[in-house]
Amino acid sequence: MLTRAGSDREVLAAARALENLALDDRNKQAIACANGIEPLVAILASGEEQSRIASAKVLTNLALDEVNRTLISAAGAVPLLVELLRDGSDEGQEAAAGAAENLALSQDVCSELALMGAIPPLVAMIEHGSDTGKETAAGAIENMSLRPDLCPHVVEAGAIAPLLRMLMSQSPGVPEAAAGALQNLALGADSRSAITRQGGIAALVRLLEEGSSMAWEAAAGALGNLALDTDSRSLLVREGGVPSLVRLLGGTNPGAKEAAAGAIENICFDDNHCHAVAEAGAVEPLVGMLQDRSDSLKEAAAAALRRLSSKLDEVKMSIAAAGGVTLLVQLLRNGSDSAQEAAAGTLEKLSTGPEQMLAIAQVGGLSALLNLLQKGNPDAIEAAARTIANSAKLQQNSDAIQKMGGIEILVDLLQNGDDAGREGAARALQNMCLSEHNRQMLADLDGVSAIMGLLLTGSESSREAALGTIENLALSDPNRVQLMNQGGLEVLADILKGSGISKGHRLAATRALINCASNDLCKERIVQVGCVRPLVHQLSMPDEALQEAAARALQNLSLWDDNRGIIALEGGIPPLLAFLQKGNLEMKEVAARTLWSLAVLSDNREVIVRAGGVSLLLDLMQSGTDSGREAAAGALQNLAIDEDISMSVERAGGLKLIVDLLSSKEVACRVTAMGALQNLVLNEHNRQSTAAVASIPALVTSISEGLPPEQEAAAGVLRNLAMCDSNCERMARAGGNGAAHPAPAGR
After folding, report:
1. How far apart are the C-alpha atoms of 522 and 513, rounded to whole Å?
2. What's the pLDDT score for residue 23?
3. Whole-angstrom Cα distance, residue 106 to residue 116?
4. How far apart are CA 104 and CA 487, in angstroms?
5. Mean pLDDT of 250-257
6. Could you tell me the maximum CA-CA distance found in the chain, to the nearest angstrom?
7. Please, which residues have CB within 8 angstroms of residue 190's CB and are 6 or more apart in sequence?
8. Cα–chain center distance at 56
9. Each residue of 312-364: pLDDT tens digit?
10. Structural domains in the chain?
11. What gap in Å lies between CA 377 and CA 366, rounded to an integer?
12. CA–CA dist 613, 596 (Å, integer)
C-alpha cells in the first residue's frame, strides 16, 4: 500500500497504521526487515501533505531503534525531513521535528541533520511554534547539543533566548524540554557563557523554586553543567541556587537528587563556595543518599561529598557525625566501580585529621581500602592508595596496615600498577616508611628496586612520590647503602644537575640526599657523582625551602673529611655566610653548623674570617635560639684553633658571649661553649680576660655536678686556664684543680 500502486487515501491509511504498529519494538524491526523504510522515505519525497506527515511520524517511531536510524539516513530521509521542517505546515513541521529528535540520537545522523540545515528551522519552531512544536523542537536541539561541535551553531541560530522563555511556560512538558536542551548546550564552554550572559542561571533557579517537579531534574542538570565555569558558579551562588539544590537532595525524585548532587559537586570546585553549600545543610541529605538503593545516586552523593569536604574541617566532622564514614566504607565494599572510586576519594579527603583517620580504621576502612587496591578499577585504586597514604601518617594505622599485609599489596601495586596507581602506592609507602620496621620490610620485599624503577620510568608526579619514599627509606642505614648500590645516588645527582627541573623534584631529591649523606660511604659517593656543585648553586636559588635543603645536605656531607675542601672549592662558604646575615633563624643555624664542620680546615677558616664570618657568628650568638647559639659557638670553636682568629673573637666581645652560654639549660649548648672556650683560652691574653676569669666558678661546678660530657669539657677548659698562675689560685678558691698541659678542643 506504501508503493505508488496505492491511492493517496490507501497510502495515508497504511502509513497511519504503521505509525501505531511502530510503537512496538518488535514491529520496528519487522518493518525495517520488510524493507518498509524506503517506501516511507519515498512518500516524504513525493506524497501529499498528510501522507508525508504520516510517513514522518512512522519514521519518528522507527528511529527509536539504533539500527533503523542508520537505515533511515541511508535511504535519504534526512534532507527530506529538513525540507518538511522548513516548508511544511505546522503539523508537518512538528512531525519532522519529532523524527529529527530521535534521529539525532545517532551522532552521524546528527551531523547530517546539521549539515542539511535542520538547526535554524528547529530554533524557529522553538520561537514561534505551538507548545507541542516547541517541546519537540527543544527535544531535537537537546539531542543535537550532545555534539559539542554543534553547540556553537545552535547558539548562533539564536536558540538560547527562546529556550529561556520556554522555561516560564505553564504548559506541561515545555519547561522540561527547554531545560533539557539548555542542559546539553551547557556542555560547551562557549554555550555556557552565552546562557549565563542571557540570564539563564536566574531563570533556571526560578524553575527550581516555582516549576513542576518534572522540570527539576533537567534544571538542576543544566545548572550543574553551567557550574563548570568559575563565573557561572559564583553567579549561581549569588542567585540563591544553592538552597534550592539542597532542597532537591532531600526530595523523592531520584533524577533530581542525582542532578542536584552533581551541581553541588561542581559548585564546590571553588573552595569559597563550599561554605555556602555547607551552611545550606547539604551534608546530611548527601550522607542519607549514600544509603539509597541506586548506585548512581550513591556515586553522585559520594562525589559531591568528596568535593565539599576538600578544604572544610567542619564539613569533615559533620560527615562523620552523620554516620558518613561507615556508609562510605560500606560503599567501598559493595558499590559499583564508580561508586567505589567516589567513596575512596571522599575518604581520602576525610583522612587528613587524626580523628577521621581513626574513625576510618575503626569501621574496617583500612581492610576495605587494601581490598580495593587489589580488585578495583584504576581510578578507584589511585584514590584508595592516597587514602592509605593519609591514614598511614598515624602510627597506629600504619601498624594496622602492615599487619594486614599492606606493604606486600603496595609493593605489588608499585611493580604492576598503572602510573597513577604506582604513584599512590609510593605516597603510601612514603608514610609507612616513617617506621623502622616497615622500612626494613619494604627493603626485604625488594621495594627499593620497585621504587627505583618508578623513579626512572614514572611520570613527573609519580617520580616526585618515589623521591619522597626514598627520602624516608634512607632514614635507615642499610637502605642508604642499598640505594647507593642500585644507582640511586647517580639518579639523584642527575636530578640536581638537570635543567628545567621542577621545585618539587629538586626539593625531594635534595631531602633524599640529606638522609643518604648520614652514611659515610654515601657521603663519599655523593661527592664523586658530582652533587656538591649543584647543591652549592641551589644555595643561591630564590626559594627558602630549596636553600635550606641544600644547606642541610652540605652540612651532612661536610662531616666527611675529604668533602670539606671540595665544598669550599665549589664556592660553598659565601652563600652560607649570606644565610648568617639574611636568613631566618633556622637557616642561620643550618649555615652555622655547616661552617662549624668546614672550619676544621685551616684554608676554610681563612676564607670564613676574611668574609666577615666571625662577626656574623657572634651576631647569631646574641640573637639566635639556643640551638642556633650552640651552632655558632661550635663554628667559633674551630675558628679559634688559629690564635689570630682567637684574639679577634675576644676583641669583638665573643669570649663573653660564649661564657654566657655556659648558663644555658641545654647540655649540648654548655658543652659546645666549653669547647669554644677551651680553644679561645689557649691564647695568653684571652686566658687573663675578665670573661674567661668569670667562667671559672661555673666550670668548677660542672666538674662536680655536671653530666660526664660536661665534666670532660669543663676539665679541658680549666686545664688551659691553669696555664695562668692567678687562674690556678682562683680555681683553688672555687674548689677546682688546674692541669699543667694545654689542649685544644676538637670537634
Report:
1. 9
2. 63
3. 15
4. 59
5. 93
6. 141
7. 151, 152, 155
8. 53
9. 888 888 999 999 999 999 999 998 888 999 999 999 999 888 888 999 999 99
10. 1-112 (1.25.10.10), 118-264 (1.25.10.10), 315-473 (1.25.10.10)
11. 18
12. 11
Measuring CA to CA, which residue among 141, 149, 156 is closest to residue 194? Answer: 156
Q: Please enumerate in sequence order all residues whose Cβ is within 8 A of that of 416, keeping only pairs 6 or more positions apart, or say none.
A: none
Residue 588: Cβ within 10 Å count: 25
Report the distance separating Cα 184 and Cα 159, nearest Å.
Answer: 13
Cα 224 from chain centroid?
A: 23
Amino acid at 248: L
pTM for the structure as a whole: 0.75
**CB atoms < 10 A from the CB of 87, how many?**
11
Of the candidate ranges 312-316, 386-390, 407-411, the one whose mean pLDDT is the lowest:
312-316
Cβ neighbour number for residue 327 with a 10 Å cutoff: 23
Q: Which of 324, 226, 319, 294 is nearest to 266 (CA)?
A: 226
Q: Dihedral (C-alpha) 295, 102, 91, 93: value to the nearest 10 degrees?
A: 120
Q: Is 76 left (phi over 0), alpha (psi -120 to 50) or beta?
A: left
Mean pLDDT of the chain: 90
pLDDT class of 7 with cuts at 50, 70, 90: low
Give the count of beta carbons closer than 10 Å to the beta carbon of residue 615.
Answer: 15
Q: What is the pLDDT of residues 155-186, one digit of tens each?
A: 999 999 999 999 999 899 999 999 999 999 99
Q: How many helices (H) and strands (E) does the chain have?
A: 54, 0
Q: Which of 645, 630, 730, 633 is nearest to 686 (CA)?
A: 645
pLDDT at 690: 80
On whether the CB atoms of residues 166 and 178 are closer than 8 A, the answer is yes
- Give pLDDT tens digits for 554-594: 999 999 999 999 999 999 999 999 999 998 999 999 999 99
Contact present, 264 and 305 (Cβ < 8 Å): no
Scored b (16 or more CB within 10 A) or e, 245-265 reads bbbbbeeeebbbbbbbbbbbb
Tell me the one-letter amino acid at 511: R
The dihedral region occupied by 18, where left means phi > 0, alpha psi between -120 and 50, and beta the remainder, is alpha
DSSP assigned state of 150: G
CA dihedral 188, 193, 194, 197 (to 10 degrees): 160
Indicate the SS3 state at residue 506: helix
Give 733's contacts (C-beta < 8 A, 6+ positions apart).
none
Query: In this structure, which long-range contacts are made by residues 556-560, counting pairs with CB atoms below 8 Å and at least 24 apart in sequence?
Result: 556/514, 556/517, 556/518, 556/523, 557/517, 557/523, 557/526, 557/527, 557/531, 557/532, 558/594, 558/597, 558/598, 559/523, 559/597, 560/520, 560/523, 560/524, 560/527
Cα–Cα distance, 426 to 447 (Å, whole number): 10
Place of cell 646575615: 581
Please give the DSSP secondary-structure letter assigned to residue 745. P
% pLDDT > 70, the chain? 94
Beta carbons of 322 and 286 less than 8 angstroms apart: no
Q: What is the mean pLDDT of residues 67-91?
A: 93
What pLDDT is recorded for position 741? 46
Residues 6+ apart with CB under 8 A from 723: 684, 687, 738, 740, 742
Q: Could you tell me the pLDDT band of residue 36, with boundaries at 50, 70 and 90? A: confident
With a cut of 90, say whether residue 443 has pLDDT above it. Answer: yes
Residue 129 Rama label (left phi>0; alpha psi -120 to 50; beta): beta
Going by pLDDT thresholds of 50, 70 and 90, the confidence category of residue 738 is: very low
Say what percent of the chain tops pLDDT 90: 71
Q: Which residue, 445, 479, 459, 448, is CA-closest to 417?
A: 459
What pLDDT is recorded for position 33? 72
- d(CA 473, CA 441) in angstroms, rounded, equals 11
